[in-house]
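Course exercise 7: structure representation. Students receive a sequence record and must write out the corresponding structure in token form. The form below is the worked example handed out in class, using 2-methylcitrate dehydratase PrpD (460 residues). Read each field label carefully; the graders check that inputs and outputs are placed in the correct fields and that the protein name is recorded exactly as given.

STUDENT ID: A-19
EXERCISE PROTEIN: 2-methylcitrate dehydratase PrpD
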Amino acid sequence: MNESMLTRELARLALSSHPEESAEAFAAARLGVIDFLASSFAARDEEAIAKLWRVVKAEGGHAQVPVIGQGEKVSFLQASLLNGLIGHALDYDDVHSDVRGHPSTVILPALISVAATEKPSGERFLAAYVIGVETMARLGQAIGPDHYVKGWHNTATLGGIAAAVAAAYLKRFSQAAMEKVIGFAATQASGLRIQFGSEMKPLHPGLAAHAALLSLKLAEEGFAGTRQALDGQLGFFGLYGDGDQDRAKRLLVEGWGEPWKIVTPGLWFKRYPFCSAAYHAADAAVRLREKNKLSPQDIEKVEIIFPPDGDAALVEREPQTGEEGRFSVEYVVALALNGYPLSLDNFTKAPLAEEIKRFLPRIHRSYDAKLSPVPHAVPKGRFTIVAVTTTDGTTYCERIDRPKGAPGQPLSSEELRQKLEHALAGEPDRAERIIGTVSALKGKEDLQQLLFLLSITSRL
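STUDENT ANSWER:
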């Protein structure tokens, strides 16, 4: 494959895919939809959403697409902004280790807008979702690790392209139109990790989904643009990646759907509303406290050990609020060792509890390049060790290579059900109907019923 064919090959593979032939892929997709809706409903009253609502309402527009949990509809493009923000507002939504980011909260908002305006079948919707995850995971592998470490937010930079591919598949675009859509989305790719810990970070998926749908609209109007945006040194991988074009080509297209990335390694569904990079430490700290009956008064110091760059996403070392604490391993470990639940209530805009603030200076990070990751680690090459030293000089250690919720140790269907029910507290009937509708999702009517269930605000 020469360098002018990469965009063409991605478009061809996406358009010729048949994920509906894989029962495993569709089962995983159904779980992904349920988890995304649980994460979204849990966030529906967040202040950032109200702020974006005011911007959208001031602009006006056609009421076409439902906004999750808000009881209102907005325009095709506006809905992607809002639903993307809502899905990621609590950092409670799924991640994928190949992406090093969050696929569903970009892909599904784009597909919801298309579903509401085009009325495709539920089966086609799920197939598009599988293709979107496949695209985003392969982009994540092909772009290389330096992209994230350098400061880009993969959810935003890769998500727009993946969502555009998924939405163009759902709308049955031609090969030529798909190639242009990829280019339109690629040229809008942006998102900085320096925004982590702020309201702008969860808006990144909304901006990426908006870019994806704008790309579709431009293509439908015959807007001119390159059909080789991923290719060569001036293309997406040449600019955003590590410069290894051969590696990018191989990882992006070879073995497409064999197996589907939504199945292997699969999506990582979250138990806690904070960055997944802190999950290893969270599990270790909870285990240390429970197993050793540790009292915070007896803890003299805590060391959190990562492989090099294993904490790149955890940008907050001295958080002042629970919202900033979503990206602070120190805060997460302090909560766990002090017996606080790792629940939504402790990751809000409220200032930290005084005893947690006093505990934070005892916690320090370090890095060990000599320790070998285990083969089953998730993400690959990662681990976290938490070492607690007590006032009598005793040290207790726990190492976690694959936290609960990650592929290989997933949340059960029942745990996902409970996550949705908790997000819809007081509305058990709606939770049950959403799960039943997603589980049976196939025809056009099924998909429209799902859109109705996610948009209403009153109890059923």
